[in-house]
């Protein structure tokens, strides 16, 4: 049995916390990407710095998804798309 939806004030608070955590994670990941790129240019292209850089970029993508999820929760846009609708994606 699915859980009941959260009341609107709680949804807005949870959405705000998700968006805030995504922004903070994004700032941290941007700083780490800056350091990894600086290491790449100063020490040459090494496998370890390339691996770190790719992991940091995935973290940056995750932070963007957190912000998007938080903003959607704040706006209350959780309705799903109708799969039988005749529309272009």
Describe this structure in words.
This protein has 89 residues and is mainly alpha-helical. It contains two helices and no strands. The longest helix has 36 residues, at 8-43. The protein has helices at 8-43, 47-75. Helix 1 (8-43) packs antiparallel against helix 2.
Relevant terms:
89 residues, 2 helices, 73% helix
In short:
The chain has helices spanning 8-43, 47-75.
Chain-wise SSE layout:
Layout (H helix, E strand, L loop, with lengths): L7 H36 L3 H29 L14
Low-confidence stretches: none
What would you call the structural class?
mainly alpha
| Portion of residues within helices | over 70%
Number of helices: 2
Give the H and E element order: HH
How many strand segments?
0
- Give the overall shape, derived from the CA principal axes: elongated
For the biggest sheet, the summary is: none
Radius of gyration: 19 Å
Mean pLDDT: 83
Taken as a percent bin, the fraction of beta residues is: under 5%
Distance between the termini: 31 Å
């Amino acid at each position: 049995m699915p859980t009941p939806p959260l009341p609107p004030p709680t949804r807005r608070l949870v959405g705000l916390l998700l968006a805030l955590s995504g922004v903070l994670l994004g700032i941290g990941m941007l700083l780490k990407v800056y350091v990894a790129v600086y290491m790449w240019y100063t020490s040459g292209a090494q496998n370890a710095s390339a691996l770190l850089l790719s992991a940091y970029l995935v973290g940056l993508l995750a932070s963007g998804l957190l912000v998007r999820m938080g903003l959607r929760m704040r706006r209350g846009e959780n309705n799903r798309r109708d799969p039988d609708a005749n529309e272009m994606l």
